[in-house]
Amino acid sequence: QQQVKQSPQSLIVQKGGISIINCAYENTAFDYFPWYQQFPGKGPALLIAIRPDVSEKKEGRFTISFNKSAKQFSLHIMDSQPGDSATYFCAAKAAGNKLTFGGGTRVLVKP
Amino acid sequence: DAGITQSPRHKVTETGTPVTLRCHQTENHRYMYWYRQDPGHGLRLIHYSYGVKDTDKGEVSDGYSVSRSKTEDFLLTLESATSSQTSVYFCAISDPGVLQAKNIQYFGAGTRLSVL
What we know:
Structural class of chain B: mainly beta
Order of helices and strands of chain A: EEEEEEEEEEE
Shape of chain A: globular
Distance between the termini of chain B: 29 Å
Oligomer: heterodimer
Low-confidence stretches of chain B: none
Radius of gyration of chain B: 13 Å
Strand content of chain A: over 45%
Mean pLDDT of chain B: 93
Order of helices and strands of chain B: EEEEEEEEEEE
Largest sheet of chain B: 7 strands, mixed
Helix content of chain B: under 10%
Number of strands of chain A: 11
Radius of gyration of chain A: 13 Å
Structural class of chain A: mainly beta
Number of strands of chain B: 11
Number of helices of chain B: 0
Number of helices of chain A: 0
Strand content of chain B: over 45%
Low-confidence stretches of chain A: none
């Protein structure tokens, strides 16, 4: 039972383009929605996060859009750069500080 | 990697042998977690701990046990390793008492385990 579904599994974008990754969740008790970025051979690292009472959060070239009624949220990477090539995971937090992760999206930014 | 050390970083073992992975933190964070990462599944929680000697099961706990006798150390044991436990294992820490970072989990660099 996958409580957080993430799509697409992989994404290729040209340098300067926009990368969009989507996630959908089922559990309405989730109260915090982070995105993690992972480079090969490294552990995931927090990129940006949002609470369900906010519809959008922007940090530099990274934006989360959140739709509470649809139980969906997405990550937009504007002006994508080769250094953004990584695997991105959405997640949702429930009680006890436990995270449920999506399946991951491998992003490749071509120069 | 936020003061988190996982050991070993790589291990190859045989089916049926016991394996223990160690996570050591220097951040004095109260919560510690063990995840496994497999293609298409993201990271799945195996066990977590919310204090010394306080542990609980995650969504994929079968075949795994944990122990936490000190704040800084969280051990994951595979009692009798199986090929299905071949994976990359990540330890994470968090502390809900840290106001600006109460929801953030910090991850170690991972342990790649192969069970032959």
